[in-house]
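As described in the Methods, two query proteins were run sequentially through the folding procedure within a single session, without resetting any intermediate state between them. The first query and its resulting structure tokens are shown here.
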Amino acid sequence: MKRNCAVILLGCTFVLARGAVAPYAAELAVGLNHVDQYTIAGAKHFVRDFEPLNSDGTVNAIVEIPTGTTAKWEVSKSDGQMRWEFQQGKPRIVQYLGYPGNYGMLPQTLLASDKGGDGDPLDVIVLGDAVPRGSVVRAQVVGILKLFDGGEVDDKIIAIHDKSPLAEAFDIDELRTMYPGVLEIVETWFENYKGPGKLIADGYENRAEAIRQIKAAHAEYRRRN
């Protein structure tokens, strides 16, 4: 009896050891493949081959980090592939709770560094259940979280997946009224995931301002590319 128990325990340990990377793995969107263990790509360039805005006012969000996960992947502006970011020689894992939504970027947008931005595409967080990494999600924009990272503008577009219960809200004020606490959760997460004092939040702007910024960032991208 004791021998059987030992075998079971050893078996469980073996499974855990083999699955040690499981918390950092994520399903890939259809049509994407691993170039290597740190790079994924598909037939299209993630930055240049998708439009940021659709005719119905929704955005096309490229999901780099699915809801609830912590592996820090990001799209490369140069080749349009998606890579696991390295920090101090190791694949970066956010040392905090998993992302509170599907995090990613808006294609064909640019926050120019000479205008106070970080030189990257606009960031977006799509509230809702996790989708596969590399998904292109049509999402309803409701507002923008104003953030500063080391003095640089690091705003986050707030959008909602159309399959989320939150999709009944069409603006930041509706989201605040209909689903109390959601905006506070998102703001608290971003203010703290890099450590105290690293990011400074300055409240939310409404949908109209978010759309204005998306259009401006799209125009900036087109002007420079």
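Immediately afterward, the second query was submitted; its sequence and tokens are:
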Amino acid sequence: MIKTFLIVPILLTAALNSFSQIKKGVRMVGASVGTVFYNSGKSEYSYPAPTTGFVSNNKSYGANINPSMGWFISDNTAIGATLNFAASNSKLSDVSDATGNVFNKDNSNRFNIGIGGFVRNNR
């Protein structure tokens, strides 16, 4: 009995919300996380004597988020805009095996912003 009292209001609320989502003049808002990643790697290179080789370390991470907003222009059709925010970082370093000195280091940060549009038809 208690489950029924909890489930029925939730279903009614969901039905009312889904009805209002496809009504003309109503806005729709959403967001998606496109990508989230972390990468870490290590490569060891060795050469014949007198050269000893080196170790290459690579670390990178990033994320991509896409918020969107649209308006229903009819009961089944929505138009809107979407934004794209992407950030990433990459670090690469090469270390000599014999001396431990870093002889190559590359750090890069990226931040991208984009905009787009969409049309959706719910039939």
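DSSP finds one helix and four strands in the chain. We note this only descriptively and draw no conclusion about the first query from it.
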